[in-house]
Amino acid sequence: MATRRRFLQWSGAALATPVLPRLAFAQKWPARPIRAIVPFSPGSTIDIIGRIVLEPLSIALGQNIVVENRGGAGGTIGSALVARAEPDGYTILIHAAAHSAAPAAYPHAPYNTSRDFSGVAIFGTVPNVTVIAPAKGIKTIQQLVDAAKKSSMTFASAGIGSATHWAAERLQLAAGFKAVHVPFRGGPEALTEVMTGRVDFMSIGISSGLQLIRSGQLIPLAVSTLKRSTALPDVPTTIEAGYPDSDYTFWNGMLVPAKTPRAIVDRLHAEMQKVLRLPAVMEKFKPQGIEPMPLSPAEFDAMIRKEVANNLAIVKAAGLKFN
Q1: What is d(CA 45, CA 60) in angstroms, rounded to the nearest whole number?
Q2: Residue 154 near residue 180, CB atoms below 8 Å
Q3: Are residues 146 and 285 in the same domain?
Q4: Cα distances (angstroms) measured from residue 148 to each of 105, 143, 239
Q5: Which end of the chain is less crowded, N or C, counting CB atoms within 10 A of the terminal residue's CB?
């Protein structure tokens, strides 16, 4: 019996040994500045939201967090950079719903969306709003749909596979019309083209479009959420307008390379929950209509896997073709 007890003690110690270096590493983390990759241009919705939360997070962690905008290819350029980074907690990805659309829009992307990343925390969901220039003479989403069914129209996005692209595709599929996609490198560039009337419409995160809406340079036609946005309470949802299954969840959050130590993932998650409850952060989120979406890292990963499957199904149903 004593021999068996000694064997079990030795076995337990042997099994625990590999964990000790990882725990020690995590306890020392972070010992230097952290790099945060935003795979879209400055001024995009995820860039705005990311900077709001990263400032207090850097204070909580006691290290600077340096934001790098690596836009292009619907967010896949910046994401690929993070997928290849050392999984040591010093490179994080600030991304949005475009992340789970990548396998459908970029089937040859140099990473696997589900396997090469670990979800950390969701900052919240942002209502996408379909906007158009006043000069177009269109006041409602129904008028837009009717016009698009009668003659060719164009829509702008922040890139193939971006949340702005996907929200517009969901609307078209639900409303039964087809417009020509005009992708740009980022949301601000796309909004400029819609505002001038060179491109007909766009479905953009409220965070990016609100100032132009309030200044009268863009007309909001509908939001793609299940309920109206507190930031634009007089604007109907696309479902209210009569287009079932047109809603689109535009989440924003943080991910890390898949093999990042679990202790670091858990620490980041815990600190982010504290940041999201800060009155100053909540105050900045409120006018942009950002709604909380509290998920654990495991729930975040599961949601991404489900969205990947759903987006592949949308591509098939809409008959979209991507290289």
Answers
A1: 23
A2: yes
A3: no
A4: 23, 9, 18
A5: N
d(CA 182, CA 218): 18
Alpha helices in the chain (DSSP H): 2-16, 19-28, 45-61, 76-84, 98-105, 141-150, 163-175, 187-196, 206-214, 262-276, 279-285, 297-318
Q: Which tokens sit at 289?
A: 């209509």
Nearest to 308 by CA among 158, 50, 75, 112: 112
Q: State the pTM of this model.
A: 0.79
b/e per residue, 30-50, with b = 16+ CB within 10 A?
A: beeebbbbbbbbeebbbbbbb
Handedness of CA 229, 235, 240, 245 (dihedral sign): negative
3-state DSSP call for residue 201?
Answer: strand
39 dihedral zone (left: phi>0; alpha: psi -120 to 50; beta): alpha
Q: Is residue 274 part of a domain?
A: yes
The answer to the question of residue 229 being in a domain is: no
Query: Structural domain of residue 152, as residue ranges?
Result: 128-223
Q: Which amino acid is at 168?
A: A
**Residue 244 domain flag:** no
Give the other-Cβ count within 10 Å of 6's Cβ. Answer: 10
Q: Are strands 251-257 and 91-96 parallel, antiparallel or unpaired?
A: antiparallel
Mean pLDDT of 273-294: 91
Predicted confidence band of residue 185 (pLDDT cuts 50, 70, 90): confident
- State the CATH number of the domain containing residue 170: 3.40.190.10
Domain boundary among 223, 258, 281: 223
| DSSP letter, residue 183 | E
In a domain, 192, yes or no: yes
CATH classification at residue 87: 3.40.190.150
